[in-house]
Design brief:
D-Maltodextrin-Binding Protein, domain 2, single chain, 14 helices, 2 domains, 349 residues
Amino acid sequence: MLQKFALVAGAATAVLALSACQDQASSGGAARDYISAVGSSTVYPFATTVGERFAEATGNKKPKIDSTGTGGGFERFCAGVGGDTPDIANASRRIKKKEFDTCAKNGVTEIVEIQVGIDGIALGEAARGPGFQLSEEDVYKALAANPYGKANTAKTWADVNPALPAVAISVFGPPSTSGTYDAFKELILGKGCDANAGMKALKDSNKDKHEEICTTLRGAPYYVEQGENDNLIISKLDKNPTSLGIFGFSYLDANKDKIKAVPVQGVAPSYAAIADGSYPGSRPLFIYVKKKHVGVIPGLAEYVAEFLKGAGEGGYLGAKGLIVSPKAVADVAAANAKGMTALNGAELK
């Protein structure tokens, strides 16, 4: 009799747990009948366009999308499961292992990773700017707090490289919560540091010290954070013609009348150069979806499908500056979206 009671009680507990999980996503303290997304300012204009198309096609409410920066987006996304937490994190870099672990700790245990395209970290200047041509090492020597382990004393670009204009080093860029900031440090600043043989050797012998020397940026007036609004950087360049800006390629592409690209390693950021990987600042763009919210929050799977439709070959996001992923990558993204395949996390860094 006791054994039978225990089995019945166990089954009841399991049903209650499942019910609670479903209720969590649909209520979370407040019922929600729209999709909530947070994260990257670079992905934001693409996600917003998709949201408009999704609402027109399905009759669902337009998703609520907040531009918080990639890091800030993951903080909110990983806070838990439920209607008071976002369904999607937009990201201009891959989720980090520590973020994935935080998600798991808070009950966000099934995360679907979908690469929606490629972007480039562009350096730009005002249309009437001096016409910079930079190497990764030039950028590192100008903006690192302690290049090669020594305090940075460079005040002008000519101090960094005599071939560069003798104008003050002034770069407007994203804050530390931004995926663009992280990708800039990894793809351009770090490579400029590793152009030095000693720094490249340090990477193997003392990884933490290497990261500190190679990716710590100096502050104002040399590197000035401008928040998550890349359009603000565009306007700053128009008023400061000898300054440079760091932003996603889509913002450069959309403001050709105001700013021009700064080549890095002799390659200017362009659709073709980013697509074939010849531009040094090429990077993938992602959306991350809570599987537990799929089928509970109205239209979530359909919104993801619409995103991939817009991001595909000939899709409408190309006009917004999104670059199509290589076919093999796009096929994986489509399979993940269709099956809502959860990310394993073992290969994350």
